[in-house]
Fold this sequence. Notes:
By secondary structure, the chain is of the alpha+beta class.
Amino acid sequence: MTRPTPEESARHAAGPAARAVERASAALGRLRRGRLLHPAGASFAAHVTIWGTPGPPVGVDLLDNPGEYAGTVRLSRGTPTPGGWPDVLGLALRVHSGAGHPFDLLVSSSGAPPVLRNLPLPRRGFSGTYSTIMGYRTDRRRLWLAALADPESVDLGRTLAAVTAAARTDAPRLVLAVASAVGPWRPVGQVGIGVPLDARQDAALAFDPVRNLPAGLRAAGPLTWLREQTYRGSRRARGATVQSGGSTATTV
């Protein structure tokens, strides 16, 4: 007898409301013939350098301890609006940590101050602050993660074509950071954006920001449940799984 996949097991274990949200998301995804969320994007190989947490550790080994990891990054437009218009921009990062499953971090364009870091804010350019609208929790505290503009890196521009051109010629970088609800951002690492992936590789990618987390970190907040069902439905519509793109390959 064929064993169910993790996606199928999770679907059967979910309650009626969760299954209803998943089915609705899958139906909308089929209508769009692709991703339900952030359909227009560009993906790249990445190199992730973790410097370690400055000051008190947060309780997540992947962030607290220095390390070097292969990664995949996808920059995207939320709506999408016409090129160059303000939009809620997205950045998805997969860290191939070698721990049995990847670490998937999904962040949206936002403000850097505490009062704005958990609000999605439209903007024109891909350089800027991206933060986790959905917070996380460790055994010690509530935590937010961000990808910040590196002041010494090339500007990413206003269009996906400009991002791709920068990746081909200038090796752009982003800074990974952590913060509490009201504290300042603390840089913990860097993401180097490498060679662009082709359209087939981009289409195969599927991120799971709720289940693909490192040890010691768990999703928290009222949006977690809704986000999990929505992403599951979107993956279901296009026949993807939480490991699509591979846990070690360089390919939402």
